[in-house]
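Run log // design_07
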């Protein structure tokens, strides 16, 4: 199967969001929620302290940290937009060729042939496919808007068929040995 596509900034941001949601590492999934929640809790604590004890210079460092924690989602989104803008390999026409032996990524700057064994997981939502490498730190984004309905179903079935066994092996390892860290599981798979 051959797919020609382009990744817009919105596609990239959607893919980043989906990659975080689909990560096996719990800390990566929870960080966008926990850190701002901690910042809000700290702000409430500081407001309560200022109301009961009176405003003081002692509250300034806490206020700075509270604002920093609350701004993490905005700073992260800004960093993602900057990363997209500075990346040469994400702009222009991209191509994807899928066959039984692997997948070929191509673009104006890079081209790579990757065997199926390199990937261990894919996730999708209504807008994006995200293909994870075995180390979970590298993933590829394929926007669904560039694919026809037939290509979307063929793409998903190819990935499910090819990676289905690897996902079961990973989940069995997680259930069979809960003391193994998430990083070791990603390396073993």
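design_07 sequence
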């Amino acid at each position: 199967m051959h797919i020609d596509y382009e990744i817009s900034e919105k596609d990239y941001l959607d893919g980043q969001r989906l990659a975080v949601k689909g990560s096996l590492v719990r800390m990566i999934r929870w960080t966008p929620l926990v850190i701002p929640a901690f910042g809000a809790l700290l702000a409430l604590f500081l407001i309560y302290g200022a109301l009961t004890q009176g405003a003081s210079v002692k509250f300034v460092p806490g206020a700075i940290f509270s604002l920093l924690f609350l701004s993490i989602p905005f700073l992260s989104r800004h960093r993602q937009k900057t990363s997209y803008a500075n990346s040469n390999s994400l702009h222009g026409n991209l191509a994807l060729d899928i066959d039984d032996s692997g997948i070929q990524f191509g673009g104006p700057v890079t081209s790579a042939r990757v065997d199926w064994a390199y990937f261990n997981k894919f996730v999708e939502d209504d807008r994006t496919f995200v293909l994870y490498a075995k180390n979970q730190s590298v993933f590829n984004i394929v926007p669904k808007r560039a694919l026809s309905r037939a290509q979307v179903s063929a793409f998903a079935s190819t990935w499910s068929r090819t990676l289905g066994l690897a996902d079961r092996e990973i989940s069995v390892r997680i259930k069979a040995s809960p003391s193994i860290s998430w990083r070791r599981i990603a390396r073993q798979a």
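Strands lie at 2-5, 94-99, 102-106, 111-115, 119-124, 128-133, 139-143.
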